């Protein structure tokens, strides 16, 4: 149908907004059946993915919304997760609070490449304090080995990680020490 035929038609006919040139006979529709708004007349702009720098098209509504104020756009979920892992981890994260948390009632610090680090990269703070004081890592043979070196808190306060409150001993001696402390407590006396 030509433009003249459209103007002369008695019923309101308009062109498809996707840019194909098709005619629409229903006034409430903007596209020919089967077409979508992914045509040439979309509003938006081309930006670069914040991770892989691939060019991606972003709708105008996404550009204006509050979620994208910082101008970060991603071509897919993988790029977004890689960006967040790489660029916003540790002290680069705006929610970073120094890398000190409490895990099972004990303070832990973030040291991701420590041999005793958890999956999240945290190590108990008393281990770091003792290793810095003695100038070497604590001896660790294997899990539950009696000859592993462990740290004993002299005042029994797990959060008190001052050097003078920490004692390095083997796991075997640590178990014996706590056994003696329990024995003395039952007897009503004090061991030290």
Question: Your description of this structure?
Answer:
With 192 residues, the protein is α+β, with helices and mostly antiparallel strands. It folds into 3 domains: 1-42, no CATH class; 44-96, no CATH class; 100-187, no CATH class. Helices cover 26% and strands 19% of the residues. It has 5 helices and 9 strands; from the N terminus they run H-E-E-E-E-H-H-E-E-E-H-E-E-H. It has helices at 3-8, 60-64, 77-87, 125-134, 171-187, and strands spanning 14-15, 23-24, 44-48, 55-59, 100-103, 106-110, 122-124, 149-153, 166-170. A 3-stranded antiparallel β-sheet has the order 5-6-7. It is rod-shaped, with a radius of gyration of 33 Å. The mean pLDDT is 80.
| Amount of beta strand | 15-25%
Low-confidence segments: none
The largest β sheet comes out as: 3 strands, antiparallel
Global mean pLDDT? 80
Number of strands: 9
| Total number of helices | 5
Number of domains: 3
Helix content: 25-40%
Query: What is the straight-line distance between the termini?
Result: 102 Å
Q: Helices and strands: which structural class?
A: alpha+beta
Computed over alpha carbons, the radius of gyration is 33 Å
Reading the helices and strands in chain order gives: HEEEEHHEEEHEEH
Apparent shape: rod-shaped
Properties at a glance:
192 residues, alpha+beta, three-stranded antiparallel β-sheet, two-stranded antiparallel sheet, 5 helices, 9 strands, rod-shaped
What order do the helices and strands come in, and which of them pair?
Blueprint: H1 3-8, E1 14-15, E2 23-24, E3 44-48, E4 55-59, H2 60-64, H3 77-87, E5 100-103, E6 106-110, E7 122-124, H4 125-134, E8 149-153, E9 166-170, H5 171-187
Antiparallel strand pairs: 1-2, 3-4, 5-6, 6-7, 8-9
